[in-house]
């Protein structure tokens, strides 16, 4: 995934059991996937494959386009035509078909006899036979149902699923028990309760660690040569003057100074390098004091809250959550500052970095359990001896330098004492400056090496944790087909309960439709090019009978399939006076039903999603996909027709209205 991510959270009005209630998005996720990606130069076979995938995943409108395009480019046959017919009829009634589409279906029916015999041709023939039974009053359904039962499971299941809306009356009654039984068997199959959460889990952002700070040794290296040269000249001059004045004593003093200087350098460097520093396993981030202070923004606050949460639920044995939080205040504060600083510029939601926060909480717990949590600093056990030897060597060096100055200056004629004084002064200043610059260069080099090693180790550990979590998500996340299957089963169960409550059979219905809308406080996710899927839905079922319309709505929790806040309404066809669909690019789609007696029914159909689209996605196309997947287009057409015609709508859509719909037979 790229490091840019989700847009800000939004909210929108929505109508459910309480018509003035509100809805809020908790999280939204777009999964990168090539399942629907088709290159402009893709072959007809590839377009057909993607079209079938779209059909299976509940996007028939887009599937029709892809399969039709494949046929237009010469890829045809019984299997292709079978899926094309299903795409034409899926989630539609015969009234949704245009005259051109009916003509195309008739043309496809005429091609059947010319195809070679295989299982797809038989499935295609049964599909057209079902349409013939629907469009012929008093037709015997037994033979065609027997043919349907004899089809292989894949073809049989596809026909039942995609002809669900167009099949009505006695034919639907005969198939309903089988449809319902399959829905009950598959509704919680494939580990739905344990896997659905992964579909709405955001893709984790990649691992990061604190990079080493740039070295500041360049300036020290630039100044070092001049000071070393001055020290060498001053020391040589002082030694020469001492040798001239008293060779024997000068040799002893020079030897002592040389030994003391080497000793001080050896142990002084060790002392300097052994200054307390964070250990590799400490995972404590100390911001550079030279950095400007960072304001406690919203992202940082959410990161700190997430750290508190994961530390509280991952406490070591023997600690209560509160006690562990109190024990790790400084560690959590440092880690939170580190993570907020590492990921702030990506403008992501904290959910995408929760995997890392959880890993750090587990790592801290594990280090406490194995006794390394307190090992924040590393120090040499001989640091006291090192300090003592360094101080002693420096003292001896100072005494030797002063003794050398005395040897060179005492009893000597002018201007030798002045030169000796200048030499010792120059050696002292340049020696101190040279040592300081050299130690600074060495310290920076060692620091850079140490921080580079720590960065590599931390990054490697976090990358392992990232790939482990990413692999787990990918293995757990349901496929589009599984999500669509579970959703279809939920709808089937809902329809069955509504029919039983109203004591209706399919023979009593003219038609029906289900409008699916986002529920309250939902999470939503989708794959690139696919429809939004929600963690909470509002199912709104319209049952059209001779007596009027029965409307049943209910909130569904997609995680466990439970429902609540059911509401039922009944009204005559003439009571529905107007239907209005409002589209706002910044908010979404709203459907308003105006009843002769009663308040305006405002229904949220779809939230805005333009901010979530990839550059390669067309906003209008994605909007149509979402409306098609939610059965919105079909529902709009039905309700608008009823609002326009009133009770006359029955004459055009009643049992006899199928007579002109002659495709096969």
Low-confidence runs: 1-22, 276-295, 376-382
Strand order of the largest sheet: 1-2-4-5
Q: Which geometry do the CA atoms define?
A: elongated
Q: What value does the Rg take, in angstroms? A: 40 Å
Please describe what this structure looks like.
By secondary structure, the chain is α+β, with helices and mostly antiparallel strands. The chain has four domains: 1-32 and 480-665, no CATH class; 35-167; 202-277 and 382-476, no CATH class; 278-377, no CATH class. Helices cover 55% and strands 13% of the residues. It is built from 21 helices and eleven strands. It has helices at residues 44-56, 60-72, 78-89, 99-111, 119-134, 142-150, 153-162, 169-186, 192-200, 217-245, 247-273, 298-313, 321-327, 329-343, 354-369, 383-409, 416-476, 480-502, 619-629, 632-645, 648-653, and strands at 11-13, 22-31, 509-518, 522-527, 533-534, 536-545, 548-557, 563-571, 576-584, 588-595, 601-607. The strands form three sheets. A four-stranded mixed β-sheet has the order 1-2-4-5, with no helix packed on it. Strand 7 and strand 8 (563-571) form a beta hairpin. The chain starts with 10 loop residues before the first strand and ends in a 12-residue tail after the last helix.
Quick overview:
With about 675 residues, the chain is of the alpha+beta class.
């Amino acid at each position: 995934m790229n490091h840019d991510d989700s847009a800000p959270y939004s909210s929108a009005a929505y109508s459910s059991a309480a018509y003035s209630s509100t809805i809020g998005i908790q999280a939204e996720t777009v999964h990168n996937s090539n399942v629907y990606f088709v290159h402009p130069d893709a072959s007809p076979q590839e377009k057909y494959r993607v079209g079938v995938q779209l059909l299976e995943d509940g996007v028939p409108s887009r599937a029709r386009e892809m399969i039709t395009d494949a046929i237009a480019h010469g890829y045809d046959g019984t299997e292709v035509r079978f899926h094309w017919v299903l795409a034409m009829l899926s989630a539609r009634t015969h009234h949704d078909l245009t005259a051109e589409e009916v003509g195309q279906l008739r043309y496809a029916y005429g091609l059947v006899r010319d195809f070679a015999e295989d299982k797809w041709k038989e499935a295609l023939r049964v599909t057209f036979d079902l349409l013939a039974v629907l469009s012929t009053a008093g037709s015997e359904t037994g033979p065609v149902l027997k043919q349907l039962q004899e089809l292989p499971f894949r073809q049989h299941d596809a026909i039942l699923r995609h002809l669900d809306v167009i099949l009505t009356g006695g034919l639907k009654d005969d198939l309903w028990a089988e449809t319902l039984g399959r829905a009950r068997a598959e509704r919680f199959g494939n580990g739905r309760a344990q896997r659905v959460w992964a579909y709405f889990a955001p893709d984790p952002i990649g691992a990061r660690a604190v990079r080493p700070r740039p070295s500041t040794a360049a300036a020290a290296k630039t100044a070092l040569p001049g000071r070393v040269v001055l020290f060498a000249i001053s020391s040589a001059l002082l030694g020469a003057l001492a040798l001239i004045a008293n060779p024997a004593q000068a040799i002893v003093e020079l030897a002592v100074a040389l030994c003391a200087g080497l000793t001080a350098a050896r142990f002084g460097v060790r002392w300097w390098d052994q200054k307390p520093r964070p250990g590799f396993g400490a995972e404590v981030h100390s911001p550079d004091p030279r950095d400007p202070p960072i304001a406690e923004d919203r992202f940082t606050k959410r990161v700190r809250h997430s750290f508190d949460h994961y530390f509280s639920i991952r406490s070591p044995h023997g600690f209560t959550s509160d006690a562990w939080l109190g024990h790790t205040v400084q560690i959590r504060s440092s880690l939170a500052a580190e993570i907020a600083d590492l990921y702030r510029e990506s403008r992501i939601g904290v959910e995408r970095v929760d995997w890392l926060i959880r890993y750090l909480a587990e790592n801290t717990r594990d280090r406490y359990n194995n006794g390394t949590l307190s090992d924040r600093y590393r120090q040499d056990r001989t640091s006291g001896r090192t300090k003592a030897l360094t101080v002693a060597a420096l003292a001896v060096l100072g005494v030797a330098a002063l003794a050398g100055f005395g040897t060179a200056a005492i009893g000597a004629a002018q201007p030798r004492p002045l030169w000796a004084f200048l030499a010792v002064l120059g050696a002292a200043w340049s020696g101190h400056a040279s040592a300081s610059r050299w130690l600074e260069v060495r310290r920076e080099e060692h620091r850079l090496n140490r921080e580079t090693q720590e960065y590599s180790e931390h990054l490697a550990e976090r990358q392992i944790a990232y790939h482990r979590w990413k692999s787990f998500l990918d293995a757990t996340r349901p496929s589009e087909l599984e999500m669509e299957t579970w959703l279809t089963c939920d709808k089937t169960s809902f329809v069955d309960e509504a029919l039983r409550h109203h004591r209706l059979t399919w023979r009593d219905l003219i038609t029906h439709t289900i409008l699916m809308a986002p529920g309250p406080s939902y999470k939503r996710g989708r794959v690139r090019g696919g429809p939004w899927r929600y963690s909470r839905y509002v199912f709104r079922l319209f049952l059209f009978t001779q007596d009027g319309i029965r409307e049943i709505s209910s909130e569904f929790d997609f995680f466990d399939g439970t429902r609540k806040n059911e509401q039922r309404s009944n009204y005559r066809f003439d009571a529905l006076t107007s239907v209005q669909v409002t589209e706002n690019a910044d908010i979404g789609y709203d459907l308003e039903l105006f009843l002769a007696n009663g308040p305006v029914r405002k229904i949220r159909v779809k939230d805005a999603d333009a901010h979530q689209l990839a550059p390669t996605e067309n906003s209008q196309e994605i909007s149509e996909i979402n409306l098609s997947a939610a059965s919105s287009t079909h529902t709009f057409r039905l309700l608008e027709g009823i609002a326009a015609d009133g009770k006359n709508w029955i004459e055009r859509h009643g049992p006899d209205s199928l007579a002109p719909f002659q495709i096969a037979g």
